[in-house]
Amino acid sequence: MIAVLGGNGHVSSAFAAELERRGLAFRVLSRSELDYTSFAALTRFLRREKPRFLINAAGYTGKPNVDACETKRADVLLANVVFPQVVANACETAGVPWAHVSSGCVYSGGRILEDGCFRVEKNLALPHLRCLVDERPECVAGYREEDVPNFSFREPPCSFYSGTKALAEESLAGAPGVYVWRLRMPFDEVPGPANYLSKLLRYERVYDNVNSLSHRGDFVRACIDLWERQAAPGIYNITNPGFVTTRQVIACMQRVWKLSRPFAFWEGDEEFYRHAAVALRSNCVLDSSKLLAAGVRMRPVMDAVEDALDRWTTGRPDL
Ligand SMILES: NC(=O)c1ccc[n+]([C@@H]2O[C@H](COP(=O)([O-])OP(=O)(O)OC[C@H]3O[C@@H](n4cnc5c(N)ncnc54)[C@H](OP(=O)(O)O)[C@@H]3O)[C@@H](O)[C@H]2O)c1
Fold first, then answer.
1. Which end of the chain is more exposed for a tag (fewer CB within 10 A), N or C?
2. CA nearest neighbour of 39 among 100, 93, 98
3. What domain count does the chain have?
4. Which numbered atom of ligand 1 lies nearest the CA of 194?
């Protein structure tokens, strides 16, 4: 049996669907049924049920968005930093291998090819870099797993949410045999409040930036593939290869759904943060070649976006 922590969450429910599809026995735990944030309760459960693997897909993301984490700091710290340590200790005590769902939001920007070398650029939205992204995308590369997070408490500024996700990764670095799976701005064909594509449809104005993304179904498939292949533990960027600009995703929506509705964009960071956001947003490009080297292939990001729009479960949005 595989234990999944996170109740009916956005990510835990996708793991449950994929485990079901593969015919693998699993049990999803919700805090209302078993307080898995308690070391004693979780250890008792692990010793009794002896799962062969545990996936921690529980955490505090902030609703309706990451801004909520700025005001609920104690809850965010407990859920995103202290709790993963509880899981690490319980799993080590009970001898259960496990994986932690982290986030790509621990970075800002990407790596830019200049004079034959890559250099870090934390803001790809600067006008001259946006031109580079559109015109010479081959000159933009993502952060690799060995790159130290640069949108974190150690390298501010960052959002409180991102700071806690980076701190959890740091605190898990010494834990033996643990996978850290980085998800990034999940999307798929099922409309919902946590789906990046639904969010774009909902915004009054859209913030244009450059990002790697993870198709939610592709993400959980890749994670379970890694485990089934017995890939080396450690951090993995689990994003669909490549990156997109928000404008490219919107253009794809307009093409696939034949939308005539115009989308309005914020003029830039200054206007966006003055009117629409409290916490700084992580926008970043990730390199997923470690995943590929482990034998796990994901679709290129734009193929996955177009496919999700094509298969949008409620049909073409009526806009
Ligand atoms: N959604 C995203 O955009 C995104 C992107 C990158 C990474 N992630 C990471 O993916 C993981 C799951 O996120 P999600 O999007 O599935 O969030 P979600 O839909 O809010 O589900 C998270 C689950 O965690 C449990 N939980 C909530 N508050 C908690 C707390 N204070 N302490 C312990 N558990 C708590 C809840 O399960 P119970 O039923 O057990 O209470 C909840 O269903 C998180 O670690 C998040 O940081 C998410």
1. C
2. 93
3. 1
4. 1
